[in-house]
Write a structure and sequence with these properties.
The complex is a heterodimer of chains A (about 150) and B (about 375).
Chain A lengths: L4 H9 L18 H15 L3 H16 L6 E3 L3 E13 L7 E11 L4 E5 L1 H10 L13 H9 L1
Antiparallel strand pairs in A: 1-2, 2-3, 3-4
Helix pairs in contact in A: 3-4
Chain B lengths: L1 H28 L5 E6 L3 E6 L4 H6 L19 E6 L14 H5 L2 E3 L9 E4 L8 E12 L4 E10 L10 E5 L11 E5 L9 E7 L5 H9 L5 E8 L10 E7 L3 H13 L6 E7 L8 H10 L3 E7 L11 E2 L2 H8 L6 E6 L2 H14 L3 E4 L4
Parallel strand pairs in B: 1-5, 12-13, 12-16, 13-14, 14-15, 16-17
Antiparallel strand pairs in B: 1-2, 3-4, 3-5, 6-7, 6-11, 7-10, 8-9, 8-11
The chains are: A alpha+beta (about 150), B alpha/beta (about 375).
Chain lengths: ~150, ~375
């Protein structure tokens, strides 16, 4: 597949040891374009958009931030905790600005679906539709996202 | 017919490739911009070889513009005003600049190429930022996941800074990390002890730098850093001060307390340090020593999970709700914060509710 120099650089930055130790591809050997294409097809089948997912993740992230690193119950059924860290990261996609570090966990208590994401996940989903490769530490399966955030 | 198509495709591809090669060669051999002049703040003049980025041209002349991405055009930190030269604003810069900044000729110095003489304006304090070579002198285990790090400065041998400012430390490649990264860390020493830099580094899961420090860096390893950066330092006033920190956010306050104690500061100071359990507390004895030496200083560690520390007799819960009863006069109180974004957000919100509006913290860009 023909790639621009910029795309080659992004593929390299997604590998372990570039932006984070574990990287964003897991054991997925596909090009990031193919990962994105398959996941965007999936969310289309689910009837949601990447922007809707990113907005929902942002909503819980912002609410949980004010709870001082402890678990909060949001909207009655979501148990959310944002473990924040000092420092910021750049996006492997060369997106604007620096992105805060930290991990957010959410449990939908009605259906017991739990998910875990980072602020960088939100940026990569919103701007590129990238949910990370299979086996990556913060890979977000579209079906699980749908079940946790929209059911 | 198929053969003809293939020949045509090959001919056109060949011509395209040849033109691209010619462009590269022309740029290499003909695009000699010669020496260019960079005028800074209408007073300092540098002569540099043209063709390089403004960011690199300045750093080669020991002027370090803050940048977290190493000049890759992704962090947007290296903004400065270009009043003359620099060429047109590039599409790669626009997302990082507000309409007001664009109208004031702000540019990303990593994207601006120095091809002609250029005039720029930068804050005066950037002239004091230097690049340092040092060696790892000592590492102290403060807790199970937090280390004190002392880097002896080799070249230059000392750093001028205000207590509370930060440096950017550069990692080295190691088996798990293919790239060198720079990360910001608050200095934990006082400006009087300026022959070294002391940092407090907590291990961050997946962190390239913190894994380097905790697992790979050894005594006498050579390290590179730049600094000092930031405007987190004690303001000169007689207002009461409330310090709020958590985790490695202790770092700037360690340096600040050394400095305030040396200067025999008489201001009323309350220092709240948040931790989950007693295992996360460190430097408690040092802070208690300051209580003995400074009559108006008191130290208050606060444990958020007391059930995990049954012998704990001190404050429990979260810091923000505790603040109100300790503040004497909000209008005459300054808040100084350093810790996780959640701690900063919750504390700033509470302080503003109480009526404290002079709140200082460093978000490292």
């Amino acid at each position: 597949m023909k790639q621009t120099p910029e795309e080659v650089l992004i593929q390299e930055r997604l590998k372990p040891g570039a932006v984070t130790l574990d990287g964003f591809l897991g054991n997925d050997n596909r090009h990031y374009h193919d990962i994105i294409a398959e996941d965007l097809d999936k969310i289309k089948e689910l009837g949601i958009t990447k922007e809707e997912i990113a907005n929902r993740l942002d909503y819980f992230t912002d609410k949980a931030l004010m709870n001082y690193d402890e678990e909060a119950t949001i909207d009655g059924k979501y148990r959310v905790r944002y473990q924040t860290e000092r420092g910021k990261l750049i996006s492997p996609f060369k997106d604007k600005g620096l992105i805060p570090k930290g991990v957010i966990t959410l449990l939908n208590t009605e259906n017991s679906q739990q998910i875990c994401w980072t602020p960088l996940n939100i940026s990569m989903i919103r701007n590129h539709g990238f949910f990370e490769g299979k086996g990556a530490k913060h890979r977000l399966e579209p079906e699980m996202l749908f079940k946790a955030l929209f059911e | 017919m198929l053969g003809l198509i293939i020949v045509n495709v090959l001919v056109f591809a060949g011509i395209g490739g040849l033109l691209a090669l010619l462009l590269v060669l022309a740029d290499f051999f003909l695009a000699n911009y010669g020496d260019c002049l960079i005028e800074i703040n209408n007073k300092k003049k540098l002569t540099v070889k043209g063709g390089n980025s403004l960011l690199n041209s300045l750093s080669e002349n020991d002027i370090f513009i803050p940048s977290a991405c190493g000049g890759r055009g992704t962090c947007g930190l290296c903004k400065l005003q270009v009043s003359e030269g620099g060429g047109p604003l590039l599409p790669t810069e626009k997302p990082y600049l507000t309409a007001e900044e664009i109208s004031q000729n702000y540019r990303l110095s990593c994207q601006v190429k120095v091809k002609t003489d250029i005039s720029i304006s930068i804050p005066e304090e950037l002239f004091s930022i230097r690049k340092f070579k040092g060696v790892m002198e000592k590492m102290i285990d403060y807790t199970y996941d937090t280390k004190g790090v002392i880097i002896k400065l080799i070249e230059p041998k000392s750093i001028d800074f205000k207590a509370g400012q930060y440096i950017q430390l550069q990692s080295k490649k190691y088996p798990k990390a293919k790239q060198v990264v720079s990360r910001a860390y608050s200095m934990a020493n006082s400006p009087e002890n300026n022959d070294h830099v002391e940092l407090i580094i907590r291990r961050v899961p997946e962190g390239i730098m913190t894994t380097f420090i905790h697992d790979y860096c050894r005594k006498d390893d050579q390290l590179t850093l730049t600094g000092p950066y930031g405007d987190f330092y004690i303001r000169d006033s007689d207002a009461d001060m409330i310090f709020v920190a958590g985790g490695s956010g202790m770092a700037p306050f360690k340096g600040i307390m050394e400095e305030l104690c040396r200067k025999e500061c008489q201001r009323h100071i309350l220092f709240f340090f948040g931790a989950r359990t007693t295992k996360d507390l460190f430097l408690t004895a040092e802070m208690k020593e300051y209580e003995k030496k400074m009559a108006a200083f008191s130290y208050h560690p606060v444990i958020s999970q007391p059930e995990a520390s049954p012998d704990w007799k001190g404050l429990t819960g979260y810091i923000p709700p505790l603040l109100e009863k300790y503040v004497r006069d909000p209008a005459k109180t300054e808040g100084y914060l350093c810790g996780s974004p959640a701690l900063l957000a919750a504390t700033e919100k509470k302080m503003r509710e109480i009526g404290i509006d002079k709140i200082f913290y460093d978000s490292f860009g």
